[in-house]
Amino acid sequence: MSEVDKDPVTTRKAWNWLPPLPISEQPYFVWPVQPIVLIKHLIGRGFLLSSPGICILLAFIGWSILGPVERWATLELDWVAQVYALNLGIVIAVGGGLHLYFHSYALQGVKRKYSTIPQAKNDSRFFSNNQVRENIFFSCVSGITINTAYQVLSMWL
């Protein structure tokens, strides 16, 4: 183990924010079971307001937008394009919204950022010399396309 791994002060210099340690137990694993605490956890950030809860909500919304299941039996460009457009809209809304909140407007500040290094501009490591533009390009062109291909294949099968 290196000196950096042993010393939390050095680690704090390497990373701007660390969660409070030790990480507390989730109410799922507390014995004896505390039903009120568990229900409050599930209704709050434990499930409904967590990433999986939001993904499930988006799945239900997408399912209702994409229409009847019967039309997925034949592979047609109209519903495939609709799936792609829906995925693109979700990435723009969620990814773009989070980028605006955390980076463009910096509404949270740097208090809980893991790294305070700003996103690269005029950097030859990125094909457009801009980290944000490259991230947008690869998310929209390859990421959404591959995700849509898997989704369409699953829906069609």
Please describe what this structure looks like:
Helix 5 packs antiparallel against helix 6. Mean pLDDT is 84; it is low at 1-12. It is built from six helices and no strands. The protein has a domain at 67-157. It has helices spanning 3-6, 8-14, 35-43, 51-66, 77-104, 131-156. The termini are far apart. The chain is flat, with a radius of gyration of 21 Å. With 157 residues, the chain is mostly helical.
Beta-strand percentage range: under 5%
Q: What order do the SSEs take from the amino end to the carboxyl end, as H and E? A: HHHHHH
Q: Percent helix among the residues?
A: 55-70%
How many strand elements? 0
Number of helices: 6
Average residue pLDDT: 84
Main β-sheet description:
none
3D shape: flat
Q: Structural class, please?
A: mainly alpha
Distance between the termini: 50 Å
Question: Notable features of this structure?
Answer:
single chain, 157 residues, mainly alpha
Write the layout of secondary structure elements.
Elements: H1 3-6, H2 8-14, H3 35-43, H4 51-66, H5 77-104, H6 131-156
Helix pairs in contact: 5-6
Structure summarized in a few sentences:
With 157 residues, this protein is mainly α. Helix content is 57%, strand content 0%.
